[in-house]
UniProtKB/TrEMBL annotation:
Record-annotated SPW repeat-containing integral membrane domain positions: 13-106
Keyword terms, alphabetized: Membrane, Transmembrane, Transmembrane helix
Source organism: Amycolatopsis xylanica
The keyword Acyltransferase is assigned to this record: no
InterPro entries tied to this protein: SPW (IPR005530)
Transmembrane segments: 37-57, 69-87, 93-115
Keyword Membrane found: yes
Record protein name field: SPW repeat-containing protein
Length: 122
C-alpha cells in the first residue's frame, strides 16, 4: 500500500472515473443521439464524474467505489433498456464507458478499503 492511495486527490482510479464521466457527458456533442440517449449520457456521466471527485476528496469512502460499479452497470445496460441501440456512437460509448467504469470501480474497492482502515487506525 503506497502513501499515494491514502492521500486526497492522488488516486489514479478515481481520476479515471472522473475522465470517463466527462467523456460520457460530452459525447452527445460529437455523435448523433436522440433525446433519451443524450440525457442518459449526460446524467449518468455527470454522476460518475461527481462520484469520482467525491472519492478523490475522501479516499476512504468505500461506498463511493460501489456506487461507481452500479453507475457503470446502468450506463452499460442503458442502450438496451432505454432503446437507443440504433444510435451506434451513443450505444458504443455507453457500452465502453460503462464497462470501463465497472472495471475501474471494482479495482478501486480494495484500495478504498485499505485507505478506510488506515484512516480508522489514527
Amino acid at each position: 500500500m503506497t502513501e499515494t492511495s491514502t492521500r486526497p486527490w492522488m488516486r489514479p482510479h478515481d481520476w479515471a472515473e472522473v475522465v470517463l464521466g466527462v467523456v460520457a457527458v460530452l459525447s452527445p456533442l460529437w455523435m448523433d443521439t436522440d433525446n433519451t440517449a443524450m440525457w442518459t449520457m449526460i446524467v449518468l456521466g455527470a454522476l460518475i464524474a461527481l462520484d469520482g471527485l467525491a472519492s478523490l476528496a475522501r479516499p476512504g469512502m468505500v461506498y463511493g467505489e460501489g456506487a461507481q460499479v452500479v453507475l457503470g452497470a446502468l450506463l452499460f445496460l442503458s442502450p438496451w433498456v432505454l432503446g437507443y441501440t440504433a444510435f451506434n456512437g451513443a450505444a458504443w460509448t455507453a457500452w465502453i464507458v460503462g464497462a470501463l467504469t465497472i472495471v475501474v470501480g471494482a479495482a478501486a474497492v480494495p484500495v478504498a478499503n485499505a485507505a478506510h482502515k488506515m484512516a480508522g487506525s489514527h
